[in-house]
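Quick question about two entries, pasted in order.
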Amino acid sequence: MNFALKLGTSVLALTLAASAGFAQDADWWKKAAEPYQGVTLRGVTESSPPSLFIREVLAPQFEELTGIRVDVETTSWDQMFDKAIKDMEAGTGIYDMVYIEQDIIYSYLSRNFLTDLSGLLAANPQLKAATYDEANFTTFADYFKDEKGNLYGVPMEAFIKIYLYRTDLFGDPAIQAAFKEQTGKDLAPATTHADYTEIAKFFYEYGQANGLALWGTTVQGHTGHPASWYEYYESVAPTFGIYNWGIDASNNYAASVESGGQMNSDTAKEALQWWLDLRQYAPPETDQSTWTETGTTFGAGRAAQGLIYGENAGWIAADKDKSLVVGKVGVALPPLAEGVLAEVEAGNGYIGYYDGGAFGLPATSKNQEAAALFLQYIGQNEVQPDWAVAAPRVTNTATYDDPKVIAMNTELGGYYDMLKDKGYLFAGAPPYPFHAQLREATAPTFFEILTGALSASDGLDQIAVITEQTLTELGYRK
């Protein structure tokens, strides 16, 4: 099966296939939409595979069915947030749907930016579609609920950041023999950080010795973009047992070791240094790599292994037009420090990032009822399978059992099985309303570590101080 989301060639087929499933509900959708003819809904989101599916497939389907036009603006990650936040702050009502990343929902709720979708539909039963039910969502939807359990965003993507490795390289008998001779070990996906580094070093040297454009690992190490900050705090630090950025919210939001936090602990410094050291075995584009470029690097066959966001796993593993490693991709859990897995399985902590987002309805939207119809449309079980095949993300529990998704799971080396069976080991960002402010306050110092202006130890010491100062200024530390 080729990768489904080849925008332009497969959109028509996907549209026809999905539309057929809604024939029985067409009359209801048309009647519910009658008061909103002539309305154009506007949304803003990141230019990512799941969002492109909304723009190219679901929005046209909805317009054909209801007569309500939907314009979805896809842009860069930073511009997406900037446009949405400025619109909601100013109350201009430009957007009727905004992408809410899991890590910023707490800030949006604290500022009353969003409409309570559960409440809106309860107050307007004529708008409630029979094929939409909040109970259909996976537990990832819980990240978009308030303390009363009311939903403020319809999940549209959810994926874990996983360990991808090249099965053709790891399974090559000659390479296996060379690795065994050099290390005394069998070549297999790493389960420890030391093993991961050893494999990275081996493949770097293998590429150099054989004149190959092959390196040992990807590193999301951009020296001026938040992606590198996120790679460390949300993907690397947890594998060493540093959770919630090293901040103890129950202890006056302590960050420094002196205050009772772990942000600059010896373990945190070990984790950061391990990650920094991997750069010597990574491709030259590493210092300009965000979450997008690491996927591109892996898909180009330039790395033997890497921590890659699951939303990129689909095209890397199955799209022959974009990827050079189709059929050569395996998935595994990230390498872990001793005791971390047991700790997480006991319910304390997490081993990596469970990322994703939802489409929310701004409180400032002038078309809330029409927008509520569209948000229900994209939340139905019936639209999920093609979406999950096109962009590996699962938001509805029924999606796992669809034949198309089961087939795609095989192409992805069992990624959907991992998401379903091991997803509980991963977690989204901690529920900090100050998320963005703290990231912006500490990122400049983090970039100094990346450029070598500061050591990992001195840099984390400074970051811990900045964190506690910032949280004091914001009123969280007393």
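Here is the second entry:
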Amino acid sequence: MKRIIIADDHSFVRLGIIQILKDEYPGVEITEVEDGESLVNAVMKNDFDLVISDLDMPGRSGLEALEQIKQIKPGLPVLILSIFTEELYAVRVLKAGAAGFLNKNAAPYELIKAIERIGQGKKHITPEIAEKLLNNHGVNKEPHELLSNREFEIFKLLANGKTLTQVAALLSLALTTVSTHRGKIMDKLKLSTNSDLTRYAITHHIITDI
């Protein structure tokens, strides 16, 4: 890996990743960005061997950036890092085209192993997630697993107490679009209010108690 771009809105996280990479790959060229918009723009204008991206960033999420990167440069591998557990996001990001998913707590120990596997053209996932991917056909799915990626992002924001107007601003969407998505989310989860969304999200460990 000669050219790597890192996207994370926390500078201390980027610094930690950079140190790990430079210790293992002394000649590596590293580009840093702090949000999904900058990541997509950088990928459009430059050639990289690997993208390492956080999942939760201001504005355009890592998941949305991943989807756009795979449209722009389908062959560019993307490793997603997240504070969320594999059970919550790994299947979703892998189906969106990610080359791997890594919990941030494991990054100091697993990052180089993940990069080496990805460099060999393999996916970096646990056996449990591989099995879940094989069996991911709608049987015994939790209701929130049936949400689209966009619906899931809006669901999380609403469950965290954001208003429709705030969600629209954060995701650069029209208020009517967010409202339509909210209606679909409520239908799929069979819920009625934002308080119901919050309780559901806490129960399923999608957010912590707010």
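Reply: The chain has a mean pLDDT of 88. The first strand starts at residue 3 and ends at 7. Hope that helps.
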